[in-house]
Amino acid sequence: MNLLLSERNTPSTRTLIQHPQSPDPLIAKSLQREQYIGITILLIGSVAAIGFFSRRFEEALIFAIVLSLVLMVLIFFFFTL
């Protein structure tokens, strides 16, 4: 039993492995604002295109988007308190 406890407390298991911090080329950290702009333009364009064909479906889509945003904000504030 003492052998198992002594093996657990060896210095090799308590040391942290340090890796050099290298920037990952697959993560675009500076393009977040442009992504939000593109998503907004795509959302407005799709609502406008749908509204061109069906006014009632456009209103239902806008209602669903607004309701989703309100629920996301409420859930975010509920879980951050």
Nearest-integer average pLDDT: 79
User: SSE order in H/E notation?
Assistant: HHHH
Helix content bin = over 70%
Which overall shape is indicated by the principal axes computed on the Cα atoms?
Answer: flat
Discrete helix count: 4
The assigned structural class equals: mainly alpha
Query: Could you give the count of β-strands?
Result: 0
Q: Summarize the biggest pleated sheet.
A: none
Low-confidence spans: none
Strand residues, percent: under 5%
Rg, rounded, reads: 26 Å
The N- and C-terminal alpha carbons lie at a distance of 46 Å
Offer a few descriptive terms:
single chain, 81 residues, mainly alpha
Protein described:
It is a single chain. The protein has a domain at 56-81. It has 4 helices and no strands. The chain has helices spanning 2-8, 11-14, 32-53, 55-80. The chain is flat. The protein starts with a helix and ends with a helix.
Quick description:
With 81 residues, the protein is an all-alpha fold.
Could you outline the blueprint of secondary structure elements for this entry?
Layout: H1 2-8, H2 11-14, H3 32-53, H4 55-80
Helix pairs in contact: 3-4
